[in-house]
Structures are given as structure tokens and as C-alpha cells.
Amino acid sequence: MTATLNLLNRLMRWRSKTRNTDKLYGAIVAQARLPVFYRSLGVPDTLQGRFALLSLHLFAVLHRLKGEGREGLALAQALVDRFSSDMETVLREMGVSDLRIPKTVRGLAASSHALLEHYEASFAEGDASFAAAIATALPLNPKAAGLSSGRLASYLSAGVTQLERQPLASLKGAMLDFPKVAKP
Question: Which of the chain's ends, N or C, has fewer CB atoms near its CB within 10 Å?
């Protein structure tokens, strides 16, 4: 009886963590889909534009979580796994064949990992470097990307600062506090 209860308790904790991860990922997606990014910052409302904004917001949350020890790293890994699952769903909806899905997802995961590492390194170097990294990821011509990336870098730097002020419990509860996007 006790062994069964222990197993059920572990299962319930796992399901609760999965729901929390889904809620947090959903909050990241909702923030990345705000119309202001597409209307005021010139990010194209395309698959590539949405992916760029999702990656940037995911970066900000992952950056925040890396300072939380094992618990933060576990949540960060769960978010990355959820992100990969979401990319697989998008590929299926786009009509990529079942046989090509695993290889395509591995390629996307590798490029996403490299992009997130690039954001992390450039963020540490300052706003100009961060803006340049963002510009390379935006599906815009270089001039338009330069204009949008500077504003996105300022917004995300402020976002990282705001997220660092939030307790881990807030993040686990999918309560993200990003700044307002300044309109031009």
C-alpha cells in the first residue's frame, strides 16, 4: 500500500511539473505573440519572425533560470524540451513527413541551441553586441533588422532585469513580468 502511494505521489508531482512547464511555456509564447512586436517594431508576422521572437523570450527566461541551481536548471531543461516538442508540432502542421521529422527536429534543436548560446554570449558583451546578434536572427533586410534589433535588445535587457527580480515561485507559476514595449 505504501509503495503504491509513493508511486502515485511521484506521478502526481511529475504531472504537476509538466503542467507548470506548459503554463510557463505558454506565457512565453503569449508574450512573443504580442502585436506590438509586429506592428511597432517591424518584425514580420511570419513563421521566421515568430520563431525569432519566441527564441528571444525563451532566452530571457532561460537566462533567469540558470542562476537558480538544480531546480532552475531542471525547469530550464523542461522548457527546452517543451520548445522542441512545439517545433515538432509545427513541422507536422507544415506537412513535413513522419520520416523526416526526427532529422529535421535534431537540426532545429542544434541550431536553436547555437542561437540561444549566441544570445547568451552577446548579452554578456553589452547592448550593441546583443542587438547585432538579434539582427542576424531577424528575417529582415539589414537596415530594417538594425532598427528593430536595437529596440528589441533594449526591451530584452530590461526584461532580463525584471525577470531577475521575480522569485522562482512566480516563474514556476507562469507569472512573467516583462516590460512594456516602447512604441516609436
Answer: N
All three cell numbers of 141, joined, read 533586410
In angstroms, how far apart are the furthest CA atoms of the chain?
A: 67
69-93 and 47-65 helices cross at what angle (nearest 10)?
A: 170
Contact 77, 179 (CB under 8 A): no
The whole-model pTM stands at 0.84
Beta carbons of 49 and 139 less than 8 angstroms apart: yes
Q: What is the fold of 10-172?
A: Tetracycline Repressor; domain 2 (1.10.357)
- Cα–Cα distance measured from residue 130 to residue 13, given in angstroms and rounded to the nearest whole number: 38
Q: 158-178 pLDDT, tens per residue?
A: 999 999 999 999 999 999 989
Contacts of 73 (CB under 8 A, 6+ apart): 65, 66
